[in-house]
Design brief:
With 464 residues, this protein is an alpha+beta fold. It has two domains: 31-144 and 373-463, no CATH class; 147-371, Transposase Inhibitor Protein From Tn5, Chain A, domain 1. It is 38% helix and 20% strand. The protein contains 16 helices and 19 strands. The chain has helices at residues 36-45, 47-52, 68-80, 89-92, 96-102, 118-125, 146-159, 224-238, 255-263, 276-281, 283-296, 347-355, 360-371, 382-406, 417-425, 449-463, and strands at residues 10-15, 18-22, 29-30, 55-57, 142-144, 167-174, 177-178, 187-189, 194-197, 200-204, 207-212, 243-248, 267-271, 300-308, 318-327, 330-331, 334-338, 429-433, 438-442. A hairpin with a 2-residue loop joins strand 10 and strand 11. The radius of gyration is 26 Å and the shape is globular.
Amino acid sequence: MATQCRQDSFDFGTVEGRAVVSAFDGGVISSDAGAVLLGATDKAVRLVDRFAACFRDGRNGELIEHTLPTLIGQRLFAMMLGYEDLNDHDKLRHDPVMAVLAGKLKARRKQCAPVAGKSTLSRLEHAPEEGVAFAPQRYHKIGHDAEAIKALFVTLFLEAHAKPPRRMILDLDATDDPLHGHQEGRFFHGYYDCYCYLPLYIMCGRHLLAAKLRRSNIDASAGAREEVARIVAQIRSRWPGVEIWLRADSGFAREDLMAWCEENGVHYVFGLARNDRLVAKIARELKAAEKEYAKTKAPTRRFKDFVWTTLESWSRKRRVIGKAEWTKGEANPRFIVTSLEKGAVAAPILYEDIYCARGDMENRIKECQGDLFADRTPAATMRANQLRLWFASFAYVLMCALRRIALAGTELARATCGSIRLKLLKIGAQITISVRRVKIALASSYPSQELFAFAYARLKRAAA
C-alpha cells in the first residue's frame, strides 16, 4: 500500500568494508534508453503521424503545449516500455528519452514538461468519435475518426509486404477482457465466470488487422462478418488476386459468415461443435481407433470426410471433416467445416496442419493483453475503452514492426513483446543535453550491445 513517507537515501549494508548507499540523485538518467529504437522504427513505418491524422484537433494552436503526434507517440511508447497507467506519465513527462522520442527537448512554457502528464493524456483517450454527439464541444476539443483508425491497421499490414502473398489466412478469435468496475456494457459471462468485455481480434500471422471491443452478452461471432467484409475489401483493392482463407474455432461457424464467404470467394476452415448426430457419423472410425489404442496404448486418430448439413440453421450442405481420436482411454471426437473441396486439401492435412495452427493466435492475444495492456479498460464508457484498446493494439503493431524490420534472423526474431522490452529497450543511460547534441551514454555493461547495433543498422536502412 502506498504511503506518504519519503526517504532520501537507502543503506544496503557493506561490501568489502565499504557502505552501500543509494539515492534518487543521479541527475539526467533514464532506464529506457533503448526506446530510441522505437523512435527509429516509427520513422521507418510512419505509424504515429498517420495514427494522429485519424484525430481531429480543435484546440487553439497558439495555446496548446503538446501536439497530437506528441501525445499519441508518448502513449504508445510508454505502453511498449511497460507503463500501463496514465498516472505513470506524471513522472515520465520529465524523462529525457521520452522528450527525445517526442522531438521536443523542452516545453514552451516554464511550468510545463517536454511531454504531457496524465490529465492531458486522459482527455486524449476520451476523445469522442466524429459525428457522435454526447457532450458539449467545449469539453472535448479532440475527436477521432473510428473508420480511419480501423483502416490504418490494414494499411500497415499491406505495407509490411514487399509483394503480395499467393494466399493469406485470417484468424478470428474472441477473448475475455475482465472488468472490475461498473463500466458501460458490463455483463457477466458464464464461460469466463466474470464480468467482462468480449473483444474480437482478427490477425494474419503476427499482423493485427482488427481489435473490436464488444459487450459480452453476445455470440462470439457477432460483428465478425462486417469486420471481415471491410478487411477483405481493403486487401483486394490493393491485391485483387490474393487468395484469402478464414480460420476460427466453432464459435464462428455461423450461417451468415459462412454464406458471406461462399458468396465472396473467401474460403473458411472453422471448428464445428460436436453433437450426437455428428459423433454417430464417425462411429465406425472411433471403433477402429479404440481397437488400435487397445493394442498400442498410444493416441490413435482416424479421419472421415463427408458432406453434412444441420436440421435448420444451415442453408446448404457443406464439407465436414471428423477426427475420430482415442486417447487417454477415452474418445475425443472433433469436427471442422470448410468451403474447400476434397481435391484441394486432404482431410488430415486440413485438420492437423492448417486448422490446429490457429492456436498460435492465442499467443499473439496474450502479447497484446499481457505485455501491452490491451485488457486495461477501466474507463466509464465503451467508446473510451475502445480507444484504449486501439492504443494498445497500435503499440503491438509498432513492436511487431521492430521485430520484423530490425530483429529478423536474431535471437529475438520470434521473441514476445515482453522479452524484446526487457532485452532491448530497458537500458540504463545518462543523458547530456548541450547546445549541439543530445548524448545518450548507454550502460557499458549492457550485455546485448551487438544486437542493439544490428537493430540500429537495419532500422537506419529501412528509414532511408
